[in-house]
Amino acid sequence: MAVIIHECGHLFAMLICKSPPGKIKISLFEIKIINSSRQLNTTCQNIFIIFFGPLVNFICFILFYLLYLCNSEFLLPIAMANLCTGLFNMLPVMSLDGGQLMYVILCGKFSGKSAERIINITALIILFPLTVLGFTVLLNSKYNFSLLFVCIYLIASLLFRNNGYY
């Protein structure tokens, strides 16, 4: 549900900016909204569209958390799912919103190739301790491999996929 809320945030921002999606791809590991008119948008519009997905997750987190505090215990998992989805998507990996956001900002100062290189190095610096944490969680829990799996997937996507600006 948090992922759908997230993607609807991007779609709503595109609607506000009059920048309709060209294509929506759904796969096992991701939902990707292709904004074919992104090059026609201003930098501020692109930042708004990219950041609006995580922003909606953070707003939903606050809303559901406040409702949880009013004795609605079943809402805590929904609040946490939105927080985790928003934070996850802000990681500086080109295939995630954080990487796309960094790319738009860095391209104001650097070439596209240099911006990608900076983002990939930053991603590896952040993903390494997260991978160690994921391994630690796995060892301590004996079964919870989710963080480790996600980190390995993101590192593999850095190494083996075309993660350009889309």
From TrEMBL:
Q: Which InterPro entries does the UniProt entry name for this protein?
A: Peptidase_M50
Peptidase M50 domain span:
73-128
Question: Keyword Ion transport, does the record have it?
Answer: no
User: Which is an annotated GO molecular function term of this record?
Assistant: metal ion binding
Major location (coarse):
membrane
Q: Which residues cross the membrane?
A: 47-68, 74-96, 117-137, 143-160
Keyword list (alphabetical) reads: Hydrolase, Membrane, Metal-binding, Metalloprotease, Protease, Transmembrane, Transmembrane helix, Zinc
Cofactor(s) recorded for this entry are:
Zn(2+)
Q: Might you name a Gene Ontology BP term for this protein?
A: proteolysis
The subcellular location is: Membrane
PANTHER family linked to this entry = MEMBRANE-ASSOCIATED ZINC METALLOPROTEASE M50B (PTHR39188), STAGE IV SPORULATION PROTEIN FB (PTHR39188:SF3)
Of which family is this protein a member? Belongs to the peptidase M50B family.
Return the protein name: Zn-dependent protease
User: Which species is the source of this protein?
Assistant: Ruminococcus bromii
Classification from the root reads: Bacteria, Bacillati, Bacillota, Clostridia, Eubacteriales
